[in-house]
Amino acid sequence: MGPEGSGWARRKVRAVVLCPQSPRSPPAFAHAPILRGPDSGRVSRPSWARWFPGHPGLHFPAGLPLGWKALLAKSEVISFPVVQLHLNRTAMRASQKDFENAMNQVKLLKKDPGNEVKLKLYSLYKQATEGPCNMPKPGVFDLINKAKWDAWNALGSLPKETARQNYVDLVSSLSSSLESSSQVEPGTDRKSTGYETLMVTSEDGITKIMLNRPTKKNALNVEMYHEIMHALKAASKDDSAITVLTGNGDYYSSGNDLTNFTDIPPGGVEEKAKNGAVLLREFVGCFIDFPKPLIASGQCPALGHLPSPSLGYSIAVYASDRATFHTPFSHLGQSPEGCSSYTFPKIMSPAKATEMLVFGKKLTAGEACAQGLVTEVFPDSTFQKEVWTRLKAFAKLPPNAMRISKEIIRNREKEKLHAVNAEECSVLQGRWLSDECMNAVVNFLSRKSKL
């Protein structure tokens, strides 16, 4: 699972590259103190800046396996539009002092601005100080420098003065947006829900937990893992009779956010794997212990991490006829999780569960229903109406009777499920440290970057 340390939900680029391109960069380069190690004596770096040894300004834990270096260096290598902020403001060019002030302002940022923004800052700095990209294009396997080169080269012949102004404008807008995001007015959705990656509502006896990272296909980052656990614990104590888990956008969930693998703590990859196993065990445990009827509502495709526990522990699973279910654990060099190694063979047959868990067979909604993973399938055009008609009817049933009935049905299995969960997480901890897993993840990201 490999959590994402700081849990930044808005990451768009997998390579984190802010260091100088070459030793020729001036010693006063504003980003170097941010990226330099704690011994630099220059400035305390933000917690979000951790990098590789062997590159100016890039520091990673000692002894990092090659597979992890390749993964952490991996970028989607996507091209973003040239940053052209206020190109017509020829009369308002930023002075060198403004530029230096902006560089100092970057040092003071306390929150991760996102990897795409970091690349933009890097490229604008290089353009403002050296002009158009003058470095040879790195080889295809030199992923870190290639991502930096792509970002700088994308600026083309943008004049130094314009790049300097754009840099100042970008830093100014970045500082303003981060400041405003930390000063949310009472009554707004964020303040009222307290969630960044979910939309949680409770009405008419139904608590709805909706995954809300549609631009990331509702991939689970560390923040979402924690928020789902918090939402389930809150729902178990509120006045609702039932809880429904669903997703906003084109995916119910696309599984684990693979950027979770890229944020390595000071203790290295071993600490990363250990923390990930602890988080996953707690996450799955929340589903095992959830006392109320839990319904999964999937109108869209579902992959991996979330479908495993939600399919296995839900009282009912409703799907539209365009939904699919996929657990590509082997494709990523990993192993079953969410107690799926136990629940899927019980729900399906051992042979069918093996097809799905070992060989990664993708099931249509109809196939999943025939195998018992899905309760009922509805046409996509009438899905919401059909599901909510049932949910509202369930919510009118005596809540204590439903809770007690669920306990009688499931309690015999709880001890077994917790034991299976612990075993699966222990195995996964080892898989995450394997070269096989790292190579599979790198290959997956490489294919994705070409789409």
From TrEMBL:
Signal peptide: none annotated. It comes from Cercocebus atys (Sooty mangabey). It is an enzyme of class 5 (isomerase). This is Enoyl-CoA delta isomerase 2. Its main location: mitochondrion. PROSITE patterns: ACB_1 (PS00880), ACB_2 (PS51228). Able to isomerize both 3-cis and 3-trans double bonds into the 2-trans form in a range of enoyl-CoA species. Has a preference for 3-trans substrates. Gene3D superfamilies: 1.20.80.10, 2-enoyl-CoA Hydratase, Chain A, domain 1 (3.90.226.10), Lyase 2-enoyl-coa Hydratase, Chain A, domain 2 (1.10.12.10). Keywords: Acetylation, Isomerase, Mitochondrion, Peroxisome, Phosphoprotein, Transit peptide. InterPro entries: Acyl-CoA-binding_prot_CS (IPR022408), Acyl-CoA-binding_protein (IPR000582), Acyl-CoA-binding_sf (IPR035984), ClpP/crotonase-like_dom_sf (IPR029045), ECH/Chromodomain_protein (IPR051053), Enoyl-CoA_hydra/iso (IPR001753), Enoyl-CoA_hydra_C (IPR014748), FERM/acyl-CoA-bd_prot_sf (IPR014352). Residues 95-180 form the ACB domain. SUPFAM superfamilies: Acyl-CoA binding protein, ClpP/crotonase. Its EC number is 5.3.3.8. CDD domains: ACBP, crotonase-like. In the C-terminal section; belongs to the enoyl-CoA hydratase/isomerase family. It is found in: Mitochondrion; Peroxisome matrix. GO terms for cellular component: mitochondrion; peroxisomal matrix. It comes from the Eukaryota.
